[in-house]
């Protein structure tokens, strides 16, 4: 399933899911993929899937991303 993900850089661990849109808060800075890695880990935990089943397919360097989650 594909989701449109909006990233907010805050220290809280908030994930809001509405249909195919997700708003996620990350505390990592967007340096060398640290924020993307945090997004993958949080989404894999939220959807109870291995992190290898979560892929950012578009928007690696953007706050707006398209993420594919294989369940």
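Sequence proposed for the structure above (71 residues):
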């Amino acid at each position: 399933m594909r989701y449109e993900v909006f990233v907010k850089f805050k220290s809280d661990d908030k994930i809001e899911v509405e249909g195919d849109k997700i708003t996620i808060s990350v505390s990592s800075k967007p340096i060398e993929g640290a924020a993307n890695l945090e997004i993958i880990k949080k989404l894999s935990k939220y959807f109870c899937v291995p992190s290898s089943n979560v892929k950012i397919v578009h928007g690696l360097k953007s706050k707006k991303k398209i993420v594919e989650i294989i369940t």
